[in-house]
Write a structure and sequence with these properties.
There is one protein chain. This protein is α+β, with helices and mostly antiparallel strands and about 80 residues long. The chain is about 35% helix and about 30% strand. It has one domain. Strands 1-2-3-4 form a 4-stranded mixed β-sheet, with helices on one face. Helix 1 runs parallel beside helix 2. The longest helix is centred in the last third of the chain and has 17 residues.
């Protein structure tokens, strides 16, 4: 999966764009997926500016699958 496909799948799930940021700006209470040089990082950025549940991925596919599953679970809860 790549970022384009990830965004399409999140739209299908009706995940509000205010819930996440992909290679974008940070704001509070948001799930973040960023490409940093040769790796990808995931974290939740809370209202106090803390980085929570940080994960690092070696490739886009693994990062996108993890991100999708995390937001899908969030929407189901």
């Amino acid at each position: 999966m790549d970022v384009k496909e990830l965004i399409n799948k999140l739209e299908e799930l009706k995940v509000p764009k205010s819930y996440y940021s992909i290679n974008g700006n940070l704001s509070s209470d948001i799930y973040v997926l960023n490409q940093v040089y040769h790796y990808w990082e995931f974290f939740y950025f809370d209202e106090k500016g803390n980085t929570n549940n940080y994960r690092k991925f070696d490739n886009e596919n693994d990062a996108c699958i993890f991100f999708y599953n995390k937001l899908k679970a969030e929407m189901e809860s």
